Amino acid sequence: MSSQPGSHEDMSEEKFPERAHKHEGTVAVAESPFADPGLPPHEPRRQDIDERAAKRSERTVALLFTVSMLATIGFIASYVIFPIDKIVYIFPFGHVSALNFALGLTLGLALFCIGAGAVHWARTLMSDEEMPSERHPIEAEPEVKAQVLADFKQGAKESQLGRRKLIRNTMFGALAMVPLSGLVLLRDLGPLPENKLRHTAWRNGLQLINMNTNQPLRPEDIQVGSLTFAQPQGFSEGDPNYQSELAKAALMLVRLHPQDIKDKRELDWSHDGIVAFSKICTHVGCPISLYEQQTHHVLCPCHQSTFDLSDGGRVIFGPAGHALPQLQIGVNAQGNLEALGDFTEPVGPSFWERG
Amino acid sequence: MSTASHATNDATARRGKAPAGERVADWADGRLGIYSLAKANMRKIFPDHWSFMLGEVALYSFMIIILTGVYLTLFFHPSMQDVTYSGPYVPLQGIRMSEAYASTMNISFEVRGGLLIRQIHHWAAIVFIAAMLVHMMRVFFTGAFRKPREINWLFGFLLLVLGMFTGFTGYSLPDDLLSGTGVRFMEGAILSMPIVGTYLSMFLFGGEFPGHDFVARFYTIHILLLPGIMAGLLVAHLILVFYHKHTQFPGAGRTEKNVVGMPLLPVYMAKAGGFFFLVFGVIAAMAALASINPIWEYGPYRPDQVSTGAQPDWYMGFSEGLIRAMPGWEINFLGHTLQLGVFLPLMIFPLVLAAIAVYPFIESWVTGDTREHHILDRPRNHPVRTGVGTAWIAWYMVLLLGGGNDIVATHFHLSINAVTWFVRIGFFVLPLLTFIATKRICLGLQRRDKDKVLHGRETGVIKRLPHGEFIEVHEPLSQEKLYTLTQHEQPKPIEVGPEVDENGVQRKIGTMTKVRAKLSQGFYGEGSQIPKPTAEEHVEITSGHGHH
Ligand code: HEM
Ligand code: FES
After folding, report:
1. Å from B4 to nearest chain A CA?
2. Rounded to whole angstroms, how far apart are CA atoms B433 and B248?
3. Does residue A202 lie within any of the structural domains?
């Protein structure tokens, strides 16, 4: 423990494994061409010897500080003068808010000039003579260390912690347990997952509502070559859980030629070539938004996962791990598209219990 | 009255009244002991080098962030209450949004100077993290992390990581379409965690994503929890810098036992204080000239919408790269799903960071060096360390590139597929290549230094010798230069020692000892350093036949 002789002593070489050259110091110091010549003498600046140059520096610094004051006045004036909604064209920045532009530049100038003034002052007028200051090793002297260890032993002994095991063990137990209360208190941060992630708002008989028009979708509304987005009937933007429900239920539809559909189940779940897939990417949940008509591929803009809508939503490319879930659809008596149930598997990103 | 105060009174009476400043200082000293504190620190010596300012940039941008952040809290409403926009920005009028988004719109369009402060806050955050990263590189490449500064290296590293998360939580507060996409990404990443994923997600969001709670929760984390921890770490970081005294570059008169520079008062007070204003001024001008995070263009968050080219702030880019490059591996077994495509990147993310954090400890173990070091290394004199550093940067950069694979692809007319494969292969290969290249460059530079020491500096002057030969005149280096180029030590690698001891008995050599010797060989073996010129070589050449 205390067997580190001389370790506190100025970075001794002893402990280092074999050193290549025991430093050039072995060649008589005075003769060594590589010896440390010591600090070079200080070279005075213009300002140190020429009072006129020093005066010039003084004026420069004062000028910078004055410009700063003027800029602050400019800042306050801009705040008062420019209406907040005034947009101006300034080359090359384009159309910008006049207020933001003026406030930012005046503030920037006011600050910058203080800084430039102070730095110029330091560089040209304050002494630039370099001087050495000693370093002291950090490790304590052995006596200090011995004293501390002795004090600690004494304190530990007086506490009787080592002797009275019962106290020690129960104390550790109590200290280990008391944070549990804090942990328990976090329980109400949120509900348990249960099977919340397995279900969406879709149910048998719910009509598909067009996201753009807010009207029930009819098969003829769905054109070849474009994505149509839908949500379940009964959704309203004002609902308290609208966002969370939409995050699972968002749906996209495309019309394919039935003979182009390669997947048997996909064909079964389609209506007249119209297929409905979850819009939520199975990677980490971005909404999918890009559709390529010729290949029937959809692309997630977040990390470029690509899914083949003519082949059961299979992953073609990218980091997504499984196919997009499909929703089985049909038409109701009014001729509107409707869901024939919920998704049969969880939508969106995978999770441990997904299975 | 005590005799002591009597004596003081006498002294004051004799001198007349002390100046007001001194009396205030006396008052404070009697309570805080400021004179002893000032004695140690007021004229503390700091060495000068441009690279020592990088840490200052980080410190000052942190201060700017706090200042502007407090201002933002006066106007920002951390609430996900549903409201309908009725402010002056026409395209969004009548649109439903969260109060957080609406109040950020209010800050941007109705509070005078609000947009400026928002943009300063955001620009400062970007500068802050960039400055920390570059500062860390400076410390790394010069070996400033060596004893006694390893703990401060860890403090700095923690600041970098916490800064990234503070930035991420702040970025999410306005609840706009772009940041919401980032939060969704985070939810997906949490869900990928085995066993606890769904629970953590429910607890974090107060139910299903996005719920009504995360803005308020992120707000507390963003303005109180993380900045509080960071402020503590920062103070500790600075106290240690003062306590250890600053490192210095090698040069004449600079030793392990001194520090050469100029005093805090007045030079560094003026330079550092002034530098704060310079940084603040530049960031304010950036906020005036360059728009950042124009949330009105993205619109409020909706889980069924996304903007193309969605990108996080740059400092999160490398995690984005990890997730984009990863193949979509997903394992199903016994009714459970392990989404490796997301979970592995989530685990590699801290590993990339930890790789750089633990390096000082690995190096000190390999070298067995337990001495203090205050003279910085010239990066070339440590080819392996320098190679590891650049390899790490290459690693980081590949991932950053991967995070923008769509932008890279469209910009350079490449296929996304090609870029992604480049990142996948580059992730493994580029760091290696970078390491090898860097090491060779360092060795080349060492050779050049040796040449310069032995043969002097090339002057570009050509001389014709009497017998007709042309030579270039070499000018000998100054003593200072010679010292600077030769002062570094060149350790020998650790040897395992013979397999049998002097009595012919088989010695047991542990695996760790062998690994350590191997690594040490790699660090300091023949292929890793050019033996520096010896004084004898120099004497021989300079006194003998002159130029070669
Ligand atoms: C190291 C620390 C910090 C970083 C990196 C950081 C970064 C950010 C970023 C990137 C934003 C998004 C700004 C935007 O809308 O474009 C933000 C928002 C915000 N920050 Fe910070 N911040 C930090 C500390 C603080 C502190 C200490 C406070 C308050 C005391 C604060 C208050 C706020 C507020 C109120 C917002 C939301 C208002 C808005 O977005 O306009 N931040 N922060
Ligand atoms: S979320 Fe769709 S690819 Fe990542």
Report:
1. 32
2. 31
3. yes
Which tens digits make up the pLDDT trace of A279-314? 999 999 999 989 998 899 999 988 889 999 999 999
**B222 alpha carbon, closest ligand:** 1
The ipTM estimated for the assembled molecules is 0.90
Q: Residue A243, SS3? A: helix
SS3 (DSSP) at B431: helix
- The answer to whether the CB atoms of B328 and A319 lie below 8 A apart is yes
| Residue whose token pair is 């939409």 | A246
Q: Are residues A98 and A168 in the same domain?
A: yes
CATH number at residue A276: 2.102.10.10
Ligand 2 in reach of A316 Cβ (< 6 A):
no
Question: Can you tell me the mean pLDDT for A214-231?
Answer: 92
Show the tokens assigned to B186. Answer: 């985070």
Pairing between β-strand B258-263 and β-strand B45-46 as defined by DSSP bridges: antiparallel
Is B124 close to ligand 1, i.e. is its CB under 6 Å away?
A: no
Query: Per the domain annotation, does A16 fall within a domain?
Result: no
Q: Which pLDDT tens digit goes with each residue over B421-466?
A: 999 999 999 999 999 999 999 999 999 999 999 988 888 888 888 8
Range of the domain at A304: 196-236+243-339
Residue with tokens 């088989």: B506
- Ligand 1 atom with minimal separation from the B122 CA: 10
pLDDT confidence band for A24 (50 / 70 / 90): very low
* Distance of alpha carbon A129 from alpha carbon A112, whole angstroms: 26
Q: Which two tokens stand for residue B273?
A: 């204080």
Q: What average pLDDT does the structure give for chain A?
A: 89
Asked if residue A13 belongs to a domain, the reply is no
Number of domains in chain A: 2
Given a cut of 80, is residue B4 above it in pLDDT?
A: no
B125-169 residue pLDDT tens: 999 999 999 999 999 999 999 999 999 999 999 999 999 999 999
Same domain, A313 and A217: yes
Decide: A302 in ligand 2 pocket, CB within 6 A.
yes
Ligand nearest to the backbone CA of B324: 2
CB-CB neighbors (< 8 A) of B288 in chain A: 100-105, 107-108
Nearest CB neighbour to A20, from listed B302, B479, B490: B490
Domains along chain B with CATH numbers:
3-41 (no CATH), 45-307 (1.20.810.10)
Answer yes or no: do B45 and A283 touch at CB < 8 A: no
CA distance A350 to chain B (A): 6
Pairing of strands A314-317, B457-464: unpaired
